Amino acid sequence: MLNYIVVLFIFLAIMYSLFSGNASEVSSAAINSSADAVGLVIQLAGAMGLWGGIMAVAEKSGLTGKLNRLMGYILHPFFKTLDKHGKAMEAVAMNVTANLLGIGNAATPLGIKAMREILKEEKTAYTTRCVAMLVLLNTASIQLLPVTIGALRSKYGAATPFDCTLPILANSLISLIFGMAAVYLLFGRKNVLKYPRAKILQRSS
Amino acid sequence: MLISDLAAPIVILSVLLYGIYKKVDLFEVFVQGAYENLKIAVNILPALLLLMTAVGMLSASGALEAFSQLISPLLDKIGFPSQVAPLALMRPVSGSGSLAVLDNILSVYGADSFTGRVASVLMGSTETTFYTIAVYYSAVRLKAEFPVFISSLTADFAGFVFSALIVRLFY
Hints:
The complex is a heterodimer. By secondary structure, chain A is mostly helical. Helices cover about 70% and strands about 0% of the residues of chain A. Chain A has helices spanning about 1-20, 25-60, 65-75, 85-100, 105-120, 130-140, 145-155, 165-185. The longest helix of chain A has about 40 residues, at about 25-60. Chain B is built from eight helices and no strands. Chain B has helices spanning about 1-20, 25-60, 65-75, 85-90, 95-110, 115-125, 130-140, 145-170. Chain B is globular. Chains A and B meet through α1, α2, α5, α6 and α7 of A and α1, α2, α5, α6 and α7 of B.
């Protein structure tokens, strides 16, 4: 799927640039974006390393288990097939907590950790219902306090910059509900949707 | 404001303190966890190189702006401020790009205008879906399949549609 999207984006960019005369911008983007990607990954690598270490300490000390017992009441119904007190559920709880607290650079590494643990527990290399649910939770942007947006709004003279907090939360929940409905419709009673062309690129233990 | 500023430091401190309390060898455990994750960061890079090149080209071409102009009469009819359309199109694709668009919208229309509010709600309640999916899937070396795009993009689309309604409801 990502294959088609990438080709579609590049095709559209070139076609439209021919039409609008932006060809030089497009070609400089083609050359420079790879450096942006490296910069982004370096930035991400710092966060990934840090939060990977913190997560390991939290796991070893039993803190993630405690958090999971708390968050599990809300979260486990959406991940019914996972062991309620297993490592995967613990990682999901950590990931959702980081999202809620708005620690953006922790949410990604913890989400990846959750993804790995889910795949390990379900012993699969396909998108299962739980994987789709995890990705959805991370693309719906559930956050208690929208820090970046509040800061930007106060920069442009909002009377109360954070008065958007509740509407944003409400809208996040609405989009989450629609996304979940889509997951349930797509998967039906099945746990895994296998596509003929889906294959593992390389097994990572 | 203060709580959110301190969220990350407080989480780090409390995890480490609890680790010491439980007699965990902090450095050894931390280093092992960090090392595992650094390896994953390397896994992510190749996929991001391609995705970000494609996204960079698309946003540089101006095709998204042109498309949003094309659909703006339709949006006006359903009560969605058409000025927010570029943000709605940019949001799932590029995080930095959409932040720049939001900045522009707020500076032109004001933060407390209807347009500014819808843009803020839209930005806050959706994510950079394509980037997130690419990162998560390449980190575990798995192929991102159709259903995960559908469910996440459904959520994004609902976020766009309802942002204008929510703003009308709340203000």
